[in-house]
């Protein structure tokens, strides 16, 4: 009897676990991989902007997703269909993800470089200002002592 229950559980488990999974159909308006990368890069940036300054976005009544759709001339359904289609193929998804990551990393390096450069410029300005103040104070001392 116990073996019958175990067999029944195994059969039911197999029967319910064997389901047909349908793949997402190819969208009527397929977005190229290159354009999908561009859309996803913009989507990450918009999400970051919304997270960073969500109050400003709300106050200005701006729909960042609508800006994305307008820029790339897609609608939400088309984008969702294309994302579903591309995620079906792990190789393609990974290629797109790696390209998005590469672009974002390059842009982050450029921003970091600008920060470093601007810090160096500010440091030079501070040094120049300090030297200028030093020279001015020496001139004031020279005038006070009557030396030329």
UniProtKB/TrEMBL annotation:
Sequence ranges assigned to domain DUF4296 in this UniProt record: 27-109
Keywords: Signal
Domain of life (superkingdom): Bacteria
Residues making up the signal peptide according to the UniProt record: 1-23
Protein name: Phosphorylcholine metabolism protein LicD
InterPro entries given in the database record: DUF4296
């Amino acid at each position: 009897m116990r073996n019958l229950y175990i067999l029944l559980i195994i059969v039911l488990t197999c029967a319910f676990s064997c389901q047909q999974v349908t793949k997402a159909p190819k969208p009527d308006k397929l977005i190229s991989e290159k354009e999908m990368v561009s859309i996803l890069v913009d989507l990450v940036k918009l999400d970051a902007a919304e997270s960073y300054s969500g109050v400003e976005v709300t106050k200005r009544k701006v729909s960042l997703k609508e800006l994305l759709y307008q820029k790339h001339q897609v609608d939400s359904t088309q984008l969702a269909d294309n994302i579903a289609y591309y995620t079906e193929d792990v190789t393609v998804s990974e290629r797109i993800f790696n390209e998005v990551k590469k672009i974002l990393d390059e842009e982050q390096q450029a921003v970091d470089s600008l920060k470093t450069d601007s810090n160096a410029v500010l440091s030079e300005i501070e040094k120049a200002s300090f030297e200028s103040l030093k020279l001015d104070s020496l001139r004031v001392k020279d005038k006070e002592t009557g030396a030329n």
